[in-house]
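Look over this record before class:
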Amino acid sequence: KCVSNFTAAIEPCLEPAEKENKKIIQNITDSLLNFVCFKEGDRIALFISANGPECLQSKQQEIGNCVNATFGKYVPPIDPNSGSLVGLDSLPTLVLGQKECGDISTVQGCIVKELEKCSDPTPANIVDSIFNFILRVTPCKDVMAV
């Protein structure tokens, strides 16, 4: 319900192509819940027992670098004087085409590679699975082999 309320609230601000993504957002949310709740939460329990939160915390900077290197071009720069985003009125359209799906795949690979440096590979494997689980319910499933 929260996601439905959110997508309804932002709908007036969206371009027609972006409005089609409302269903994708709902699909992603449902997919995440199914992933986390699978077998009474076994996956999340495994993630926690394999020091997943600690692994994520220790790789926070590297994960940020992966995201910024891949998606930084989508976000307008910050005005150093005002601290606000420059060009907020000309944000790129939020659509999932071949380029965007490729960027998601790139950030996935980068993040997983960093998490594989933790002492236990389980958190990296689970994060990789989460990305794959989400991508299967988006147009990216048609663009690339997931």
Notes: The CA atoms of residues 102 and 144 lie 8 Å apart.
